[in-house]
């Protein structure tokens, strides 16, 4: 992306100039701030500033890429347009293959970023920079990464040690990528999303164990 140097030597990106210049023309006060915020979310749609994307690239090392239907997520440029500050934990109420199948179905209307299998295998279906329709709440969709787990909320045996450990490593990596605190305020269940009618991950999901595992993971922080 091109940059401009100010008189003081500070470098300003083309994106900053596009957003700042457009917002300045709208006047001061609340209206300007609102317009600035909206422009920040839309900047990448302008000609020449589209963020490069490579098909099949995953955010989580070792994950398998399986693309969800484009009807089940929305293109974005997170965290530049929407801050990511939550991880939402889901349970499929079915198997791994069931989750993958419905997330690839354009009629389903929903998909999570990741699906974790009982043996710890992880599939990524939506890029983290995009908004997946997983939480049943638009604001939470925009601010979170959704992780689906195969199994049933009523069956404690659904949640295996390999699943917990793989999911914890994934969550810890997401937290490091976006500076998310590794606590229960920021790592939440689907049931805790405002306005949801879901109950997952359910009473058999061991939150104490999970948060301990997430906090125990040491990963190198990478810029997003």
Automatic annotation (TrEMBL):
Pfam families registered for this protein in UniProt: Amidase_2
Protein keywords: Cell wall biogenesis/degradation, Hydrolase, Membrane, Transmembrane, Transmembrane helix
Single GO molecular function: N-acetylmuramoyl-L-alanine amidase activity
GO biological process: cell wall organization; peptidoglycan catabolic process; peptidoglycan turnover
E.C. number(s) listed in UniProt: 3.5.1.28
PANTHER family: N-ACETYLMURAMOYL-L-ALANINE AMIDASE AMID
Protein's name in the database: N-acetylmuramoyl-L-alanine amidase
Species, as recorded: Streptomyces antioxidans
């Amino acid at each position: 992306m091109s940059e401009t140097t100010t008189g003081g030597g500070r470098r300003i990106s083309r994106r900053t100039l596009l957003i700042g210049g457009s917002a300045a023309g709208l006047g001061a006060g609340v209206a300007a701030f609102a317009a600035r915020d909206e422009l920040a979310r839309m900047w990448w749609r302008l000609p020449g500033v589209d963020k490069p994307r490579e098909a099949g690239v995953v955010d989580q090392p070792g994950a398998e890429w399986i693309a969800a239907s484009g009807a089940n997520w929305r293109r974005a440029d997170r965290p530049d347009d929407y801050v990511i500050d939550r991880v939402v934990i889901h349970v499929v109420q079915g198997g791994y293959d069931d989750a993958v199948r419905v997330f690839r179905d354009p009629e389903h209307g929903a998909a999570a970023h990741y699906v974790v299998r009982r043996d710890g295998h992880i599939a990524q279906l939506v890029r983290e920079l995009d908004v997946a329709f997983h939480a049943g709440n638009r604001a939470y969709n925009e601010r979170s990464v959704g992780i689906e787990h195969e199994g049933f909320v009523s069956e404690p045996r659904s949640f295996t040690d390999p699943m917990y450990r793989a999911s914890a490593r994934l969550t810890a990596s997401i937290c490091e990528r976006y500076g998310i605190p590794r606590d229960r305020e920021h790592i939440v269940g689907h049931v805790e999303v405002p306005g949801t009618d879901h109950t997952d991950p359910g009473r058999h999901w061991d939150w104490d164990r999970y948060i301990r595992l997430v906090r125990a993971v040491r990963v190198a922080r990478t810029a997003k």
